[in-house]
Amino acid sequence: MPPTTTPTPTPTPTPTLTAFERSPDRGRGLARDMRVRWALEEVGQAYEVRLVSFAAMKQPAHLALHPFGQIPTYEEGGLALFESGAIILHIAEQHAGLLPADANARARAIAWMFAALNTVEPPIVERSMAFIFEQDKPWYAARQPMLEERVHTRLGELSKHLGDVGNADWLDGEFSAGDLLMVTVLRRLESSGLLDHYPTLSAYIARAVARPAYRRAFAAQLAVFTGSSAGG
User: Domain 103-211 has what CATH class?
Assistant: First the structure.
């Protein structure tokens, strides 16, 4: 019999993500490429970053990757993705560490990913956009309490869930992509004072940002803003 040979595994191409050349968050780790950086750090996947200006984001080359002219985008071999949630789901499905092995737990973790982006984030973004763009409008003062109440409703519901799961640190068992996205959404409120009413959520965020993978991702994004070197 001829000797058997072990096939040589095909190397996984190093992914490339796009990020703001000069992030409007001024290095606070709030831009959506931070989510992807964090996911890649959690699974131990090396990556490269291509910085794009606001002008370049509206050019055909970038629009071919992201039809809405935003960041982040993600390229891996012949695959190109946009939308941070879709990118993180892809990473989590390709690597161990962000989704549980158990099928039911895995489905619940994915549900929390959708909850972070579709249920918790929209009222937070709506409030922040009103603060930025509508302060000089005659309706702003009357509308702001309603916007804040919507945020408080979601924060209260999320805080209750975390309280109901007892001594667990995370939304459903072990840390997952659901927690990663939820924490990046909640961090948008850190300077608002709204989280002061929810110590359970503040502690939840603190646990997440203390993770070594988060710290590495944050340092890499901050380095772009400060102009120092950073690796993926």
Answer: mainly alpha
